[in-house]
Amino acid sequence: MAEFPPRPSDSEAEVFRRRRRGRNIAVVLVLTGLALLFYAVTIVKMVRP
User: Fold this and answer.
1) DSSP class of residue 27?
2) How far apart, in whole angstroms, are the C-alpha atoms of residue 9 and residue 25?
3) Cα-atom radius of gyration of the chain, to the nearest Å?
4) What does each C-alpha distance from 38 to 8, 11, 33, 45, 46 come to in angstroms?
5) In 3-state terms, what secondary structure has residue 40?
6) How many whole angstroms separate alpha carbon 29 and alpha carbon 15?
7) What is the DSSP string of 21-37?
């Protein structure tokens, strides 16, 4: 039978979840910033012919 890696301890799993949450928040902030940037550029292009 296949050998699976051992399950992480509760403290290791908590560290993993905290890091993943931090990365997810960073991705959301970057995507939101890009969306706002594109929105602002579009508005500026519409106002200035």
Assistant:
1) H
2) 24
3) 21
4) 42, 41, 9, 11, 12
5) helix
6) 21
7) HHHHHHHHHHHHHHHHH
Find where tokens 């799993």 sit: 13
- pTM of whole model > 0.90? no
pLDDT tens profile 1-40: 567 888 888 899 899 999 999 999 999 999 999 999 999 9
Asked if 8 contacts 16 with a C-beta cutoff of 8 angstroms, the reply is yes
If you search the block for the tokens 């290791």, which residue do you land on? 12
> Residue holding tokens 């997810």?
24
Q: Is the dihedral of CA 7, 11, 16, 21 positive or negative?
A: positive
